[in-house]
Amino acid sequence: MPALVVVGAQWGDEGKGKIVDLYTPYADLVVRFAGGANAGHTLVVGGEKVILHLIPSGILHQGTRCVVAQGTVLDPEVLLNEISQLSARGVSVEGRLFVSDRAHVVLPQHKLVDGLREAQKGANAIGTTKRGIGPTYEDKVGRRGVRIGDLLRPALLEEKVRANLEAWSPIFEKLGGTLPSVESVVAQYVELGKRLEPYVCDTASIVHTSIQKDEKILLEGAQGTMLDIDHGTYPFVTSSNAVAGGACAGAGIGPTAIQKVIGISKAYATRVGGGPFPTELLDEMGDLLRNAGGEFGSTTGRPRRCGWLDVPALRMAARVNGMSEIALTKLDVLTGLDELKVCVAYELDGEKLLEPPYDGLESVKPIYETLPGWKEDVSGCRKRSELPENAQKYIEAIEKWVGVKVGLVSVGPDRDQTADLVDPF
User: Fold this and answer.
1) Among all residues, which ones are annotated catalytic?
2) pTM (2 d.p.)
């Protein structure tokens, strides 16, 4: 059972990029199994920032192969731009990057309708990145999508694009938008297909072969559990399964291949976009966490909503993901605070809840416990035992409340600012 799944245990932006980057040297194959260019992984390597949206962050390790699997939705322009940017940094993807021919394509009409819908909703907007992710998944389940393999077949592509635009026509008419022409879309995407062709293949077969060889496979999700289409704060969710179970369908493997699930959680909580956020801090403390943690979206640049750690959400994430352990990130951001609050339960209509309810999350009252903070700099700690006593107690309290051990602690943005890094397989 050689596969390990890394998932976000909160509302996304937990630092999965750094954790995947740290675990990649132990892996033979890194697979991105869901989401699209609405996700962004920010890495700091040697003080230099690298942002990736589609290509797994494991690509920065020259000996590792990377897969963008069929569970994702791909914007070919974004993918090709990332390949170019990596090349400019001296990182070659030739022979190491594989793109699924079954992954669905983000088309111009998807991005256009995404923006039109958000504008129409006004104050009720979900807060999408307007990258066309939702409409692309909508076409996928509506059986009118265009797949990467179609880009290599111009006649078939034209047929599918024409049908797709016809399906969107009434929506655009209602929203007051203008559809692109069939000719312009086909011409653009045939050219993009030619540039992508060297990377396109049946990636599920690659993953299967890797499993047969007993190679170590790192499966990388996007967004977070609370944004999962089935388990998250619906309708303020993403359009795909961000939980560990999504790795099986998204990468094309059976559940028996997965040996471990690592959930990534910040030492506090953040959220981007609309939707309920029980521990949100709309005061100076929220601003302090935002500025100290650099909490601005890597995809949109939007300031993230910040709050205290939400244990009920983590409990649910542990349950639905079958989490083996937690990788705790951004512990350093809490340094200097006199005390730390942690939401250990909710109160709703006089009832105490240990996990998020079906609905009413926007009305829950967080039940907090307060722990002492620490003043000592943690950025140089490489073992959990080197952390200040109160930082260690904070981690121990999280383990007790969530019921899952913390296996790794990030104490700064750079690669080497990590405590207790070991082979995760």
Assistant:
1) 13, 41
2) 0.91
